[in-house]
Amino acid sequence: MTALTADQIARVKATAPVLAEHGVTITQHFYKRMFTHHPELKNVFNQAHQQSSSQPQALARAVYAYAANIDNLGALGSAVTHIAHKHASLNIRPEQYPIVGENLLAAISEVLGNAVDEPTLDAWRAAYAQLAEILIGAEKALYAQAAWSGFRPFVVFRRERESDEITSFYLKPSDGGPVCDFKPGQYISVKRFVKEIGVDQPRQYTLSDAPNGEWLRISVKRERPQDAPPGYVSNQIHEGIEVGGIVEVSAPMGEFTLDAAKTTPVVLISGGVGITPMVSMLTSLTAQNSTRKISFVHACRNGRTHAFGRWLDAIVAKHPNVSRAVFYENTHADDRPGTDFDFAGRLDFSRIADKTLHPDADYYLCGPVPFMRAQQEALIAAGVSKARVRTEIYGSGEIA
């Protein structure tokens, strides 16, 4: 790996406070600049997240973290792994890194002006080259293990409504080839052309079934067009893909995966569409006839938005080691307590401590960022070690 000099490290680290103050301005300018000079990259980056500024904010946080830890890159290990999996799912290639680097450095110079001198920019060039080398190496390893390269056409052979918001799509390779294996909790990217903005757009969807050798399944929440950001791709998938339709799919990626080798209790916690990786994990565990104590905790608004309810009931009835705790925040008159749901109101671990608070349990948590932040804080307050809580974040958010 390219080594930075002591002076370069000091200069990059010294810019961290400036990045904390001006980071979002820099990254917003960076994306605008890069898309002006390289409009083809709009097909790679989520344009809805550009509109909402969540992607510039996420990049600003990442750049700040890199600057602040430039002398201790080991602290960035999990972040690098997360980014590498996202990049590999989007088919990011080494030749794209110089484009990003050129425009990021130009954005720093153009936004900060005389506040940054040429030796500091040179230090950042070396630091970016180092970071690019780290990511390219990590992504190369992922590509070497991937089931296929780039995007592969799959045919939708079945679609099934799971709730008022979520529909499942069952996919098989259109070439008749074998379906790949994957780890429960991983995701794929689906690429669709979005006419409203005139570009291809990839979106990542968790595989919502256990590996079975026959198909892949994604379960897509339809975001409302008036939401910010609007659900360009989710609406296009719901409205435009029927049985027989073709979708372009990347190979499975993602580090939020079930540790199937353990025998300790498992607590699967989800909010809304965050249920999808938990369905894959629970299906995989029960298919293996695991004897681990498993608690499936889910929170949603009501029965109309509750996906996979009947599936969960069948699992619990068949496997005595599996328990459920379903919370409905705003129940409807036809929602049946004790049958459709177990608790009214928001998820509250004090009401299910006997099912969920075990000293040796592993906790898997997925859902909207505010939901995950609240549940992680509640678990830690109840005495659960943060190291035992694993999280998956959709989009460009972060927990803490």
Can you describe this structure?
The record marks 86, 392 as: Influences the redox potential of the prosthetic heme and FAD groups. The active site is at residues 97, 139. Its EC number is 1.14.12.17. Belongs to the globin family. Two-domain flavohemoproteins subfamily. The chain is of the alpha/beta class and 400 residues long. The chain folds into 3 domains: 6-145, Globins (Globin-like), CATH 1.10.490; 151-250, Translation factors (Elongation Factor Tu (Ef-tu), domain 3); 266-392, Nucleotide-binding domain of ferredoxin-NADP reductase (FNR) module (Rossmann fold, 3-Layer(aba) Sandwich), CATH 3.40.50.80. 40% of the residues lie in helices and 19% in strands. The chain is built from 12 helices and 12 strands. The chain has helices at 6-14, 16-37, 47-52, 54-68, 77-89, 97-112, 118-145, 232-240, 275-287, 309-318, 353-356, 369-381, and strands at 151-161, 166-173, 187-194, 199-206, 216-221, 246-250, 266-271, 294-300, 322-328, 343-344, 362-366, 389-392. The strands form 2 sheets. The protein has a 6-stranded antiparallel beta sheet with strand order 4-3-6-1-2-5, covered by helices on one side. A 6-stranded parallel beta sheet has the order 10-9-8-7-11-12, with helices on both faces. Helix 1 (6-14) packs across helix 7 (118-145), helix 2 packs across helix 4 and helix 5 crosses helix 7 (118-145). The longest helix has 28 residues, at 118-145. The chain is globular.
